[in-house]
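Rotation project, supervised by the postdoc (A.L.). Task for the rotation student: set up a whole-complex structure prediction and record inputs and outputs verbatim in this book. Inputs entered:
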Amino acid sequence: MTNRAVTTEHTLAPTRPSVVRVGRPRSRPVLLGWVGVVALVVLLSLGVAVGSVAIAPLDTLAIIVERLLGVDLGLAWSPATETIVWELRVPRVLTSMVVGTALAVAGATFQGLLRNPLADPYVLGTASGAALGAAIAVLLPIRFVVLGFSLLHALAFVGALASIYTVYRLSRIGGLAPLTSLLLVGYAVGSLLAAGLAMAMYLSGAALRQIFSYLLGGFDTASWSQLAGTFPLVAVGTGLILLRARSLNGLLLGEEAATHLGLDVRRERAILLALASLVTAAAVAVSGLIGFVGLVVPHVVRLVVGPSARLVLPLSALAGAALLAFADIVARAAGEIPVGIVTALIGAPFFIVLLRRARTGYEL
Amino acid sequence: MFRRPHALTESGPNSPGQRLALFLVAAIMVVAACAGGSGASPSPSTIASVAPAASVEATPLPTAAPSAAAFPVTLTDDEGTTVEIEAEPEVIVSLTPATTETLFALGVGDRVVGKGQDFFLYPPEAVDIPDVATFDAVDIEQVVSLEPDLVFAGGNFFTPPDAITRMRELGLPVVVLYAASVEAVFADIELIGQASGRSAEATAIVERMRTEFDAVEAAVAGLATPRLFYELDATGAIYGPADDSFLAEMIELAGGDPITTGSADKFDISVERLIEEDPELILLADAPFGVTPEQVAARPGWNVMTAVQEGEIRPIDDQTVTRPGPRLFLGLRLLAETIHPGVALPAAAPIPPVR
Amino acid sequence: MIELEDVAVTYRSQRVLSGIDLAIEAGERVALIGPNGAGKSTLLRAVTGLVAPSEGSVRIAGAPLRTIDRASLARRLAVVPQQVVVPFSIRVEELVGLGRLPHEDPLRGARPADRAAVHDAIERVGIGHLLGRDVRELSLGERQLTLVALAVAQAATVLILDEPTVHLDLRHQIATMELLVDLNERDGTTVVAVLHDLGLAGAFFPRLVLMDAGRIVADGTPAEVLTDSRIRAVFGVDPAMVRLPVATA
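Outputs recorded:
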């Protein structure tokens, strides 16, 4: 029988020469990374320069220089100007970036984890949970503010985490495949919470405005103290997810194959779910529900650099931050329209164009 | 990761992704440093400190009763928040139309530098004041840039609560006003007077309003009180006054028997309930938006109502009825005259002066 | 290399494997054959640690399977997945690169040695012409070879395949078989495959393990295992209907 063991090359590629298609240059992700960083700096400057009150760019610069470096450039400005630049605009732009990072990284994680291109940070009921939490907070006659966080932020955060925990626990009951079960239970729990939200909105009377404005999302009340609460959660969560890029890569092949590649799939799934949920919850608690970023940014990044989580996660973090910062600047320039509308208006056409013209060798 | 055969020989210390991750961590630390630095410094005081320290000489009081309100004044707003006002406010932002109107009535309209958006501006002088809030959001940046020493906001979610929180964090004194009853409107006018150094004027206005309210009450006393449905809106569901609402109270004071929604905080009412309550009179507050008695009569099911059968459907322009400000008595008079056409009301006192 | 001693597997109170005694030496090439439901795949799952035996023991290179952590096991056993659906667009070399996961530094990712291993695996399997192609555009046969390359890149001493030729046309069936023979004979890789096609099994594998109803009923050379009476008893078909290259060889 060994005489039948012809060399494989002959059988497989009898006529075709071994043409190696030139792949992407390996420097492309690095280049993109730098583009992302530069974009963030530009957007930060733009975001601080633009607003409903006109402030001379030089004053803006001087205020930031003095605040950051303690250097007095010898310019005079009013306390109001300083407040606008340093207490309103800077934290606002940074918050939009942190939330953009959180949503994009969480989106990439959920897509990889659930092996579903349609997954986004809200797929497992986080959005409904956070929204219901926020609605309950609005309806409760308790008002407190600690470090810029009110009951609304607290309950939105708790609601998001509680909903995903419920989904995770329920999904482990019954005989369905873990992923199918997660998605179906996520859908069911999400629907239940949405019904609760609808009920809360129906009962809310005048408070409906506040619930509605939470649902639309935005950064108009961003502050340093909120950023100081959100940023560590997002930074730690994102960092830990980045360290688990390997697991997400293994899961590209499916859970069984990932097991064969040496991953403890159950454990990795639980850890990544927890991290992505934490990051999502931290984001939605301060910003409300902002759609589209978490769904589209990871796809756009994948179209350019391929599916490896080692590239997709960090580049999504940068791209998400840039997109949301840009969207918020547009939202402000357009007279404080909800930023979720802008993300969809910018993101959807861009995404469609990219899909149609994808010459990068990747498709969805 | 692998790209093409010759790339395999390339040696690099890190994968590109890894280098990016490191950069991100570094960027994150820089941002963290900024956030921490700000949290430590008590920056919100920047605004409060610019409040005029001593402005007694800058407050001429042309009216007979000098307020001579002693600033700083500490007051409790309608949400129970204690607000301290250091000196007589010279620069005021008023985020609700009723407050803007009240400030003009108190003679400090010229100090209002920013106002909330409104469809029915009053007085006409207020037109030139820039809008710093829409019906949905406050432009906090604009408010801050005006450097106000006093901000009036609306309670019960009229001004978004997180915007109120944010303005207070930034050191702005914010007084939140929400009147759920006629008495509360009077109290709010007094509160606005107290906060703006016009207590005596506020008391005078309230007294004048009370006189007018008493006069209307006396005029409608003894008249039949028709069961009345006051239609706020019917584009989607039918909206009318909630139980114990400000509007219901006004209708009662004007000699009507208000049909309410049966809930303290819901403003929609089912047609079934409306038919059961059988209004004898329907007032169309949505008439200015084009709703006509004919349209109402043609609505399915409405023809069984007494008011429809007898043609007792009357339009009303309810700007003054629903605005909790100094012109409220005009609203009451209008209501009384609409409910009881030809009712003999004493001549109205002149509208509080506007300066 | 792989030793199973009196292994039984119970699934939902139903015994799907019982009394399995099987020893596979390093460098062997073994095909598991038998009708549907005989327990072939379960046996592979017991060997790769996806199911825990309810009785008996599984040892890999002398060590009890349950004492070996997943990553070390992955460096010993490479499993070729049956068919893989990747949710995103992925290039051939990127897919093959996933085989390096058990070797990669968890933090730093692929290093030059890993890239070299991927390159070698691609050369070894002879799919250099597929470089840069999206795996999802490939034919089933090309995809199968890419998956084998992934397992080769894993650089394990044992290669385990579950019905690698299913869905493949004749040319690719033969090509896959030849590749397995080549990997076994030239590199000394131990190959364990579940096969449905008795003809292919008999032609390319020197040792066949015939299973039926959760038990091993025969173990030996094709000539020893594929007797007319066994084919009739186990598969319930007339042996004349089965073209067995070995029987005629």
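Student's summary: Chain C has ten helices and ten strands.
Supervisor addendum: Chain C has a mean pLDDT of 87.
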